[in-house]
Design a protein that fits this description.
This protein folds into two domains: 269 residues, Aldehyde Dehydrogenase, Chain A, domain 1 (3-Layer(aba) Sandwich), CATH 3.40.605.10; 184 residues, 3-Layer(aba) Sandwich (Aldehyde Dehydrogenase, Chain A, domain 2). The longest helix is centred in the first third of the chain and has 24 residues. The N and C termini lie far apart (88 Å). The radius of gyration is 24 Å and the shape is globular. Helix 2 runs parallel beside helix 9, helix 4 packs antiparallel against helix 6 and helix 5 crosses helix 6. By secondary structure, it is an alpha/beta fold. Helix content is 38%, strand content 21%. The strands form six sheets. It has a seven-stranded mixed sheet with strand order 15-16-17-14-13-19-20, with helices on both faces. 51% of the residues are buried. It binds nicotinamide-adenine-dinucleotide.
């Protein structure tokens, strides 16, 4: 344990850095199990204090009367602050969650761009004057919902945090951010950068803590007017139940088991590279991982053989090494979960074509590494093909026809994403639009743009994030009827 890790570190509550009163929250480097830092995590009282400080800050006339372009200036400064520290933040995140440096760098850049994007959206979004049906002017204006809670997972910190914090602040809300207890570092850095950018105290609090204590307290707090949640489907359901009682809106970005479909007429090089990136980048710990691969029967043996050969060339190793494709998994329990699914696949009759084990050697001894794994011989109905593994495990299956692959791809509780590789653009459209998925990639995979809305269907989520109107989900419409009639309402006249 390092010296820094030995002393408890403060968290960010209402503009003040102080020790939380909850359980300690350590950030562990999954490369070797060393502790980066340990934070004094938030308990329910700390969360309550953060909410109260948020309410006070929102009520303050400085924030309430700040014009959109002035608020946008603060958001841009936060974006600039993130960009200025890209390298150090990327290294910090690498130590917090084990992703290779090129990925963590990309996440920091994405977070910075998100603040710039929502600054631009804030300055340019318009309210509406609606067609009046009487002697009045009718308008729809947008008011901030109030204090909102943002709850995030560990797999893409900073980027998923910016995706919630930037539009919520743009909307005029105060935000209490509860990052995953496994990856607290970058959310707290965001708090520091926002404070330095001049965000008034109380508008952003960062309260790392456990889900069952800090997370649950945030969701249940009577003054929290919305929860934006990214995480597992079961946690999302639990949050939605509490929200139903409070009649509180939620945005839920949940799990997935996304299909990738390769037709015989696909460009094989493009398809293989896309499939590999789609499942094995981020060590497969990605909600939109293309974890079920359907390959047209006529090319199945040759395509799978090539895919396996290419997978065996992927480098598992130190995320600091630029040659590394896959770093360690986030934690020992996560690796144990992946291992148990591979064992299940074997017991269900699956053939492990590559991987299926921890890499051997001294360099891997203390980290939570796992080899990229391809399994065939399973039915789409098997548990391995139906349940989210959230690790570097790909199930491959042949298909016979468009109708067959549409049915199999849709045969899942999830509906997050779908990838299609084909040279026939009409077929891509026909098949793609028949599959229930919030995001459809055609001849590409796992590409994102902050200006494009993101949502899951079925058990993959509720509500939309990103896009220019992403700000609106943190606001409520207010309809204004502005009377223009010179004559009094005749109703009260005596006949
Ligand atoms: P998780 O559901 O275990 O935890 C997510 C967050 O919720 C954490 O901050 C956790 O502390 C908190 N939490 C847990 N219980 C809570 C409760 N009762 N009340 C309030 N908060 C609570 O998920 P995870 O393991 O951190 O992340 C992996 C999951 O996230 C996967 O299922 C993945 O697909 C999903 N994910 C989805 C998206 C998307 O955009 N759809 C993106 C990334 C990850």
């Amino acid at each position: 344990m390092t010296t820094a890790a030995a002393a408890l570190q403060p968290i960010f509550i209402g503009g003040t850095w102080r020790l939380g009163r909850g359980a300690p929250v350590p950030s562990v480097n999954p490369v070797d199990g060393s502790v980066n830092a340990t934070f004094a995590g938030a308990d329910a009282n700390d969360v309550g204090e953060a909410v109260e400080r948020g309410r006070t800050a929102m009520a303050d006339s400085v924030w309430r009367h700040m014009l959109p372009h002035e608020r946008a200036r603060i958001l841009r400064r936060i974006g600039d602050g993130l960009a200025a520290e890209t390298e150090s933040l990327a290294l910090l995140q690498l130590r917090d969650n084990g992703k290779p440096l090129y990925e963590t760098r990309g996440l920091v850049i994405s977070a910075s761009n998100t603040f710039h994007f929502f600054a631009a959206a804030l300055e340019t979004l318009e309210s509406e004057v609606t067609p009046a049906r009487g002697a009045f002017l009718t308008m729809t204006t947008y008011q901030p919902l109030g204090v909102v809670g943002a709850i995030t997972p560990w797999n893409s910190p900073i980027a998923s945090e910016a995706q919630k914090v930037a539009p919520a602040l743009a909307a005029g809300c105060a935000v209490v951010l509860k990052p995953s207890e496994l990856t607290p570092l970058l959310a707290l850095e965001l708090g520091r950068i926002a404070q330095a950018a001049g965000l008034p105290d109380g508008l952003l609090s960062v309260v790392p803590g456990t889900g069952s204590v800090a997370g649950a307290a945030l969701v249940a707090h009577p003054d929290v007017r919305k929860i934006s949640f990214t995480g597992g489907t079961e946690t999302g359901r639990a949050i939605a139940r509490v929200a139903a009682d409070k009649l509180m809106p939620v945005t839920l970005e949940l799990g997935g088991k996304s299909p990738t479909i390769v037709f015989a007429d696909a460009d094989p090089e493009l398809a293989i590279n896309g499939v590999l990136f789609g499942i094995f980048s981020s060590q497969g710990q990605s909600c939109i991982a293309g974890s079920r691969l359907f390959v047209e029967r006529s090319i199945y043996p040759a395509f799978v053989e090539q895919l396996v050969a290419r997978t065996k060339q992927l480098q598992v190793g130190d995320p600091l090494d630029p040659r590394t494709h896959l770093g360690p998994l986030i934690s020992e329990p996560q690796r144990a979960k992946v291992e148990s699914y591979v064992e299940l696949a074997r017991s269900e009759g699956g053939r492990v074509l590559c991987g299926g084990r921890r890499p051997a050697g001294e360099a891997f001894a203390r980290g939570t590494f796992y080899e990229p794994t391809i399994i065939d011989g399973l039915s789409n109905r098997s548990r391995v093909c139906q349940e989210e593994i959230f690790g570097p495990v790909l199930a491959v299956m042949p298909f016979e026809s468009e109708a067959d692959v549409i049915e199999q791809a849709n045969d899942t509780v999830y509906g997050l994403a779908c990838g299609i590789w084909t040279g026939d653009y009409k077929r891509a459209w026909r098949v793609g639009t028949a599959i229930a998925a919030g995001t459809l990639w055609i001849n590409t995979y796992k590409q994102f743009s902050i200006s494009t809305p993101f949502a899951g269907v079925k058990a993959s989520g509720l509500g939309v994030e990103k896009g220019r109107t992403g700000i609106r989900s943190y606001q409520q419409e207010q309809s204004v009827y502005w009377g223009l009639d010179e004559r009094p309402n005749p109703w009260a006249n005596v006949p």
